[in-house]
Amino acid sequence: MFFNKNKTTKKEVTTSLVNKSDKELKTTVDAKEKFKSKIKELSPLQFKVTQKDGTEPPFKNEYWDNKEEGIYVDVVSGEALFSSKEKYKSGTGWPSFSKPLEEKNIVEKTDFGFLGKRIEIRSKNADSHLGHVFTDGPKPSGLRYCMNSASLRFISKDKLKDEGYAQYEELFTKTKKQSEYIIVAGGCFWGMEDLIKKEVGIIDTIVGYTGGNVPNANYQVVKTGTSGHAESVKITYDPSKTDLSKILLFFFKIHDPTTKNQQGNDVGTQYRSTIFAKNEDQKKIANEVIKKVEALKRFKDPIVTTIEKESEFYTAEDYHQDYLTKNPGGYTCHFIRD
Counting CB atoms within 10 angstroms of each CB, which of 146, 194, 225, 265 has the fewest? Predict the structure, then answer.
């Protein structure tokens, strides 16, 4: 920890008063004075995060899983910061964005904390602590702006004009955000989801059970291998950034499609390799990809992946969702092959 001459303990960040330059200190003081009334209206958590550089709990905050379209503004000043267009599922439990909506409203500062050197993100006008930016994000930026929900206020696209943000309406009217989905199975869904969700164009991933004959399937039923269900991943993607062929080719890179009803140590029909096609177009593409993979001859044994008609998908229990993010080092038999 850093200490000043009066032995007052400060956080090891450049935004603490002991580390601020005169110019930065004046900016902070001016911001606090300008937004004094707004700061008084903050909840205890919002105050802790924005004013005391705190961090909210992962997976237990307002926006980490928000899928509604709109923009995110500073909870104190209202300055526009991020858009849902650039929000993606990072699996960290905090709202994550690949880039800012308005770079002019973002300030980067070096943070020397317990986790080493990091880049802190603050709002320009209110000087609110927002979060940090990391270099493990999706392409093309390769950045992950990991923000605190407590620092943000969400404004849905339908309320932009009423809230005074009419200039951002065109983001959601020019090109309506499209999405498609495909359901695949290739062994334990923990490892499948963990790798797939990091790919370019993936909007969301949900693990669950499908392909069986027992209603309201759950883990206790599926694990017996008698219900006909497969542990599966429902992949929602943006077709303007990726396509089904690319997703399925990656699917074949992360599991072994030559072992029937088995992946690694997991054995049973619930661990089969299957593509669940919702229509003839998906079925056609799936067949084309299988032929392409066979032509590459990367597997010495025949591919046994089946194509089944999409059936009822039952979302798995909460503890299965983003399992390897919540439990780093947990079991997986999946990896990316060359």
Answer: 265
* 3.30.43.10, 1.10.150.650, 3.90.1200.10, 3.30.1060.10: CATH of 180-326: 3.30.1060.10
| Segments making up each domain of the chain, as ranges | 12-173, 180-326
pLDDT in the model for residue 239 = 93
- Nearest in space to 148 (alpha carbons), one of 55, 66, 38: 55
Instruction: Single out the catalytic residue among 31, 42, 121, 146.
Output: 146
What confidence tens digit (pLDDT) does each residue in 231-245 have? 999 999 999 889 999
pLDDT-based confidence at residue 14 (cuts at 50, 70, 90): very low
User: How far, rounded to the nearest angstrom, does the alpha carbon of residue 87 sit from its chain's CA centroid?
Assistant: 7
Residue 11: pLDDT above 50? no
Residue 90 has pLDDT above 60, yes or no: yes
DSSP E strands in the chain: the ranges are 2-3, 9-10, 70-74, 80-83, 87-88, 96-97, 106-113, 116-123, 129-134, 144-147, 152-156, 180-186, 202-210, 230-237, 262-263, 266-267, 273-277, 306-309, 314-315
Segment 83-104 mean pLDDT? 94
Annotation says 333 is catalytic: no
Contact 54, 12 (CB under 8 A): no
188, 196, 221, 316: which is the annotated catalytic residue?
Answer: 188
